[in-house]
């Protein structure tokens, strides 16, 4: 479907512009993004009805081409032809950055094959926004939406549970209760941040420990962005040396330095170096 309007651009560069759009609040768009969209002869939209709300707000009157996951392959030759003919073409999604868990990746790969320059216009991102406020590790792995097939989901979660960094998921509110048990099984001991309706009027941020997660009693609205923390060290600091640690001290006290013993046991058992050091002195003085 093509929604036509009055727009003709004389810029004949063969580029595809990847334009990030707001993830909720329509004011979260850059001046450059608005300027680029106004200059575009054609804007590829995931849903033209959703995009029209944004474009009308900023008086963008470019031609719109519906480009979603069900027709993006079919659109390829038409879009490549438009770009090669010198039309100014931009790609947006309903929210955020195109091709990141949204349509666009197929077109980008086709442009690369056809030596078409791809120009990104950075902007709002649910992923980086959620990680930024999580308080978790700045190193993160973005997974995206959960797969439909249960076996793939189980295998992927098992693999992800071994990664020691923050992990970001997109989840439909209709599926969150079905996934909570799997999250608890695979990420026990970690912390979790659930972001709902980010940047919108009813935005909400729920922080919890994965072990304490409970099923939601009411249906949630709005796509969820979830961040799970890096692995937490399950070994708590202790002020008591275990019998095996004491045996190690007695065995090594005359072979290596007290400092080396303290460093080793501190890393192994998370016991205060002072506790280890004092015990080493005690054993040394007994000999």
Can you give a write-up of this model?
The structure is a single chain. By secondary structure, the chain is of the alpha/beta class. Helix content is 38%, strand content 18%. The protein contains ten helices and eleven strands. The strands form two sheets. Strands 1-4-3-5-2-6 form a six-stranded mixed beta sheet, sandwiched between helices. A five-stranded mixed beta sheet has the order 7-8-11-9-10, with helices on one face. The longest helix is centred in the last third of the chain and has 14 residues, at 273-286.
Question: How do the strands and helices of this protein lay out in sequence?
Answer:
Layout: E1 2-3, E2 15-19, H1 31-39, E3 42-45, H2 48-57, E4 63-66, H3 72-84, E5 89-91, H4 105-113, E6 117-121, H5 126-134, E7 140-145, H6 150-160, E8 166-171, H7 176-186, E9 191-196, E10 204-209, E11 224-228, H8 243-252, H9 258-269, H10 273-286
Parallel strand pairs: 2-5, 2-6, 3-4, 3-5, 7-8
Antiparallel strand pairs: 1-4, 8-11, 9-10, 9-11
Which band does the percent of strand residues land in? 15-25%
Q: Helix count? A: 10
Which percent range fits the helix content?
25-40%
Main sheet summary: 6 strands, mixed
What is the second-level CATH architecture of the largest domain?
A: 3-Layer(aba) Sandwich
| Number of separate domains | 3
CATH class of the largest domain, please? Alpha Beta
The CATH topology name of the largest domain reads Cobalt-precorrin-4 Transmethylase, domain 1
Order of helices and strands: EEHEHEHEHEHEHEHEEEHHH
Query: Mean pLDDT, as a whole number?
Result: 89
The separation of the N and C termini measures: 89 Å
Kindly report the name of the CATH homologous superfamily of the largest domain: Tetrapyrrole methylase, N-terminal domain
Number of strands: 11
Low-confidence stretches: 5-11
**Structural class determined from secondary elements:** alpha/beta
The largest sheet has its strands arranged as: 1-4-3-5-2-6
Q: Over all CA atoms, what is the radius of gyration?
A: 27 Å
């Amino acid at each position: 479907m093509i929604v036509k309007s009055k727009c003709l651009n004389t810029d004949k560069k063969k580029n595809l512009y990847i334009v990030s759009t707001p993830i909720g609040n329509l004011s979260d768009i850059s001046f450059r993004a608005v300027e680029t969209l106004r200059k575009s002869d054609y804007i590829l939209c995931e849903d033209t009805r959703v995009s029209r709300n944004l474009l009308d707000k900023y008086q963008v009157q470019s031609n719109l081409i519906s480009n979603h996951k069900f027709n993006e392959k079919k659109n390829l030759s038409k879009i490549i032809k438009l770009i090669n003919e010198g039309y100014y073409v931009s790609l947006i999604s309903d929210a955020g950055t195109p091709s990141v868990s949204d349509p666009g990746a197929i077109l980008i790969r086709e442009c690369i094959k056809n030596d078409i320059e791809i120009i990104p216009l950075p902007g709002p991102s649910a992923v980086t926004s959620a990680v930024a406020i999580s308080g978790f590790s700045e190193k993160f792995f973005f997974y995206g939406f959960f797969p439909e097939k249960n076996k793939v989901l189980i295998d992927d979660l098992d693999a992800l549970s071994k990664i020691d960094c923050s992990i970001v998921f997109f989840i439909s509110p209709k599926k969150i209760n079905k996934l909570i048990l799997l999250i608890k099984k695979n990420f026990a001991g970690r912390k979790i941040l659930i972001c709902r309706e980010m940047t919108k009027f009813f935005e909400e941020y729920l922080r919890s420990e994965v072990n304490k997660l409970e099923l939601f009693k009411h249906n949630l609205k709005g796509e969820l962005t979830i961040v799970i923390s890096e692995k937490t060290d399950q070994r708590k600091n202790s002020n008591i040396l275990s019998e095996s640690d004491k045996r190690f001290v007695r065995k090594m006290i005359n072979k290596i330095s007290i400092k080396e013993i303290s460093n080793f046991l501190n890393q192994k058992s998370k016991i205060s170096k002072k506790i280890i050091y004092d015990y080493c002195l005690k054993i040394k003085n007994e000999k």
